[in-house]
Amino acid sequence: IAKEYYGDMMLWPILFDRNQKIIGSDPDKIKVGQILVVPAKEKLTAAQIQDAKQRAQPLPPAGSLYVAPPR
After folding, report:
1. Looking at residue 28, what DSSP letter applies?
2. pTM listed for this prediction
3. Per residue in 8-47, is it b (16+ CB within 10 Å) or e — as a string?
4. Does the structure show a pLDDT above 70 at 11?
5. What local confidence, expressed as pLDDT, does residue 70 receive?
């Protein structure tokens, strides 16, 4: 959906944040027939886009070891 409306699939957290009450707690569980609100691309701030892209980073493949960088 993010790819279709924003041209960048890594912006899916923007859609999830805006529609979490409809979707629920799992962004992978959008159901057929749910009506989602899509915030206008031109109204997104640089900070919103950066935050979404950071949160959308893919997880490592199943079975691999992931070590988080130090904070």
Report:
1. T
2. 0.76
3. eebbbbbbbeebeeebeeeeeebeeeeeeeebeeeeeeee
4. yes
5. 74
